[in-house]
Amino acid sequence: MDSELMHSIVGSYHKPPERVFVPSFTQNEPSQNCHPANLEVTSPKILHSPNSQALILALKTLQEKIHRLELERTQAEDNLNILSREAAQYKKALENETNERNLAHQELIKQKKEKQLEYTKRMVLNVEREKNMILEQQAQLQREKEQDQMKLYAKLEKLDVLEKECFRLTTTQKTAEDKIKHLEEKLKEEEHQRKLFQDKASELQTGLEISKIIMSSVSNLKHSKEKKKSSKVCI
After folding, report:
1. Which residues contact 179 (CB under 8 A, 6 or more apart)?
2. What residue ranges are annotated as transmembrane (predicted)?
3. CB atoms within 10 A of CB 11
4. Which residues of 51-83 are buried (b: 16+ CB within 10 A; e: fewer)?
5. In angstroms, rounded to a whole number, what is the distance separating the alpha carbons of residues 117 and 147?
6. I need a labelling partner for 132 at 20 to 30 A (CA). Which of 20, 36, 67, 114 fits?
7. How many helices (H) and strands (E) in the chain?
8. pLDDT tens digits, 39-71
């Protein structure tokens, strides 16, 4: 009997109660946000049941819980609305910040591109300047090389002239040396002939002197004989 009464009044989550007993509340209990329900007054038998006071307390506690849940639901809905508005505001602020960041990033990229372009222009100008300097240096080196080649050709020509002159002088010197050698040989021959002549002359002079001596001796001997012969005649 108690279980049937409990089910008829309280019911369950899956099966609502067959009837609800609504107790009387004091004036101090809150009544706002309470939704009316189809209430069915129970019979006096149920009110005078041994468990009626417990049931009344349970129903009162249940109504308080329902009322508190309604308040919490309302508060939750308010909080959800606030959160939705804050989320929308945050989303808008985030979108604005993102747009500002994108604009700043684009501006930074633009500045970087401009700086890169300016740096590239300077690099191109420097490369062109260095290229012109290198070309000028190469042209200067080519001119100096041509001048050096001309000087070298002039020196080679001068050297050729000097070699020809040296050859001519060498030939002249050889001819002179040959002439000198011929003259020296001729002088030697003449000296030899002169010496031979002197030797012959000396020999002839010696022969003449010997002849003179012989002739003088012969003359003296002849004179001595004649003198002796004259002496003998006088005696």
Report:
1. none
2. none
3. 14
4. ebeebbeebeeebeeebeeeeeeeeeeeeeeee
5. 44
6. 114
7. 3, 0
8. 344 444 444 555 688 888 888 899 999 999 999
Give the C-alpha separation, 59 to 9, whole Å.
Answer: 9
For the entire predicted model, the pTM comes to 0.32
- Angstrom distance (rounded) from CA 112 to CA 185: 104
Going from the C-alpha of 74 to that of each of 33, 34, 35, 117, 186, the distances in angstroms are: 10, 12, 13, 62, 158
pLDDT tens string 111-124: 888 888 889 999 99
* Nearest Cα residue to 41 out of 28, 24, 26: 24
Cβ proximity of 189 and 181 under 8 Å: no
Q: What 8-state DSSP symbol labels residue 64?
A: H
Token code pair at residue 33: 């946000």
Owner of token pair 């107790």: 23
Distance separating alpha carbons of residues 102 and 105, to the nearest angstrom: 5
> Is the Cα dihedral 221, 223, 228, 229 positive or negative?
positive
* Pairwise CA distance, residues 46 & 19, whole Å: 12
Alpha-carbon distance 123 to 146, whole Å?
Answer: 34
Cα–Cα dist 65/10, whole Å: 14
